[in-house]
Design brief:
265 residues
């Protein structure tokens, strides 16, 4: 007798081995995050948003790097992320949500990539991402594919913020919504098996924060050097920098609220 998939039960491939350990909340004990926002051309940002997303009034791109440690679904392990968010508004038939649309994320561990793609619809890819590092008052990060550098970021002259500012950052971050697009192609690669937007809430805690002057770079590459990401880099390079906004480094913890993640309509 063959295996029978149970209704209302969570599986990951290969699903025929049975359901995996599930959680309502994914806990990150230690999170260091570097965010470099800048204003870009509104039409260029709009071109990367699937309908019915629209650019926010201020077309801001945020290039960010996150180092997570003590991750409970990884049995206390950790991983690094480099991502690009776009300030966007979702104007659906039922939902109207303002927040950050995840254009792309690179991560340096396979397991969170699978969880994020299959469960949340997050646009995750693999890359080499060393820990962000501090030299004096300057922070640096980068990611690369097969040795080809994709993105690098720098935050100079980092100045600490007081507790009141940390609380304000925490409150603003909790109010926002991170949005993705869950897309699974048909087996013959002709159209989609499913395709819809998602909203992924989180509950960060900010213990320390610093502000500085940020800058970032999207690298030119070729299919021979970066076959997975070459078309993504071409799209990101259309997001020209018009003006950098204050960059921020935060340290704290975070809860990813899986049970509250939902399809937008």
């Amino acid at each position: 007798m063959g295996y029978t998939f149970q209704p209302n039960t969570g599986y990951l491939m290969p699903a025929h081995f049975g359901p995996v350990r599930s959680q309502d909340v994914l806990r990150y004990q230690e999170v260091t995050r570097l965010s470099i926002p800048y204003v870009t051309d509104k039409d260029a940002l709009a071109a990367l948003l699937p309908e019915p997303f629209e650019p926010a009034d201020e077309p801001v791109v945020t290039v960010w790097c996150q180092m997570g440690r003590g991750v409970d679904f990884m049995a206390g392990g950790g991983y690094n992320i480099v991502g690009v968010n776009l300030a966007a508004v979702f104007n659906g038939k039922k939902d109207h949500v303002t927040g950050l649309y995840a254009a792309v994320l690179w991560e340096n561990d396979t397991f969170p990539i699978l969880i994020g793609r299959e469960l949340l619809g997050a646009p995750k890819l693999y890359a080499d991402i060393p820990d962000p590092w501090l030299e004096g008052n300057n922070w640096y990060f980068y990611c690369s594919e097969y040795g080809a550098k994709l993105i690098e970021g720098e935050i100079r002259n980092a100045t600490p913020a007081d507790d009141a500012v940390c609380r304000r950052i925490e409150q603003e971050t909790r109010k926002g919504r991170w949005m993705c697009w869950k897309y699974y192609p048909r087996a013959d690669w002709k159209g989609a098996e499913l395709s819809f937007p998602t909203a992924v809430p989180s509950r960060p805690t900010i213990n320390q924060a610093w502000f500085g002057q940020g800058s970032c770079r999207f690298f030119d590459t070729t299919w021979e050097k970066a076959p997975v990401s070459v078309h993504i880099m071409k799209g990101l390079k259309t997001l020209v920098v018009k003006e950098y906004k204050p960059a921020v480094i935060t340290k704290g913890s975070s809860d990813l609220l899986i049970s509250e993640t939902r399809k937008l309509e």
